[in-house]
């Protein structure tokens, strides 16, 4: 089966709380194949290639409550991307929904530190019909997820709970979590390629 979540059934049904906001994180590998001298690939999330902070984010949060002096200086990439330290701020006690979209042709393992999340949806990206002879990856990016995902105000059934998961190629995973563990926590793909 494409997703292990499909066959999981809890003994006691559990429902995710309503969310205040959806954060979409779309990722893929982008290639610089325009020049023969640089066959570079870069992995991006929302067109951003991860750049390590200058010092641990927890230090910055402890010393002055901001991340301004520790995040890496943003710089342009070579494949229509940027290099930056991406930080997403969540308000304590609020529930958020994260939509992870894998446009890449390979599986990606992800891990969120210090939280267990409620997985509420997972599937292949629905195929869009192309009016061209050959469909392109861009066709995948045109899909409107609002047509199939639960409303933020709904309380959908939880498929599974965890902090580490795989997202198969050309698919998505949707989860919710309540920001009730203060501090900066990392969320990353386990593929270490830089």
TrEMBL record:
GO terms for molecular function: copper ion binding; oxidoreductase activity. Coiled coil: none annotated. Residues 80-193 form the Plastocyanin-like domain. Keywords: Copper, Metal-binding, Oxidoreductase. SUPFAM superfamilies: Cupredoxins. This is Plastocyanin-like domain-containing protein.
